[in-house]
Amino acid sequence: MSRETDICEWLVRHPGSSRAEIATAFGLPRTTVTSVVGRLLGQGLVDEAPDPRHAGGRGRPPTVLSRRGADLLVGVVIATPTRARAAVVDYRGQIHSRAHALIDASSERAVVTSLRSCLDTAATKGGIALTGLDELVVGLPAAIRPDTRRPALTPVPENSAGWNGLAPWLSTSVIDHLAAELPREPHVENDANLAALAECEFGAGRQFRNTMYLKLTAAGIGCGLIIDNHLQRGSTGFAGELAHMHIHPDGPICHCGGRGCLATILGQDVFRALEPGADGPDRLRAIDAIAATLGRALSPLCTLLNPDAVILDAGLGQIGPRIRDGIGHSLRAATSPAAVATLHIVTGELDDAEVLGAPALARNASR
Ligand SMILES: [Zn+2]
């Protein structure tokens, strides 16, 4: 294939790329890319537009290039234990349509129908059939095995010993049946990993290569690790399972089989302080306790991985800055200054990072 064709095809999956990014991707001199792009612009095969990443900057904005008339669309459904939300989103991170639904967990079939209908509704609202979508993504609140793309653990019922907090309906067979009903095999990914990819592609992590993303909700903690611009899943999909970091040698046994895990030390009562609308005099104390404990838990990770940034879930809203500052204080107090000298601790920029992680994941998978 000619260089023109190669670059044209690459721009389909990387819309909004600068000439410098094209040069890096192909290992070509900038001058060569400039002349190839000049020919493509002349033939009307690519479009040029101001770079939205530099909006508000001074001077003439740099420009980016996209393949004309070739926006790839991704359908994504994100599940929590009780709810599903779906969207159609393009590779530039523009959300075209959305849908929300409760998950009917009365049977495996009902769960599959809930998830697929939610995705169907989003597609219909976006004016497209499921078969017309270029990629499909399923986001789950669970560790996902990198080899099988299915959940790494099976749930334990909530009212029995060893409850592991996983959605009771979650199983390999549910995801198999959902995949069989979709027109193409979906990418299946952990929800915090999706959010981490999104913040690094479209949000607060754009300028960093090494990022730890913290998903923090009343339901617990998730974490996504991006090292050298690559998502880390580990051997069994357990990479980034911060909730199961060993914190206390005399702590209670955890459902994961470990002892004194972060999740057991903080506990569900503490996490309730993060619920939207939660109030009361003890709330700020609980939030500060979460931040201090998280800061100490992140200390060995920052020593081992020496990241550029820790990005906090944008969904924390108004309490985000308080948690960010609390984590920073306890992390820096517990860690060698050399490991955290240039560390940025920031709140995320994306309201729906999990959904926006879908095009980032699909693009990475196609590289
Ligand atoms: Zn554990």
UniProtKB/TrEMBL annotation:
InterPro entries the UniProt entry points to: ATPase_NBD (IPR043129), HTH_MarR-typ (IPR000835), ROK (IPR000600), WH-like_DNA-bd_sf (IPR036388), WH_DNA-bd_sf (IPR036390)
Coiled coil: none
Name this protein carries in UniProt: ROK family transcriptional regulator
Highest taxon in the source lineage: Bacteria
A GO molecular-function annotation: DNA-binding transcription factor activity
Family (UniProt): Belongs to the ROK (NagC/XylR) family.
Pfam families per the UniProt record, alphabetical: MarR_2, ROK
Taxonomy of the source species: Bacteria, Bacillati, Actinomycetota, Actinomycetes, Pseudonocardiales
Species assigned in the record: Pseudonocardia broussonetiae
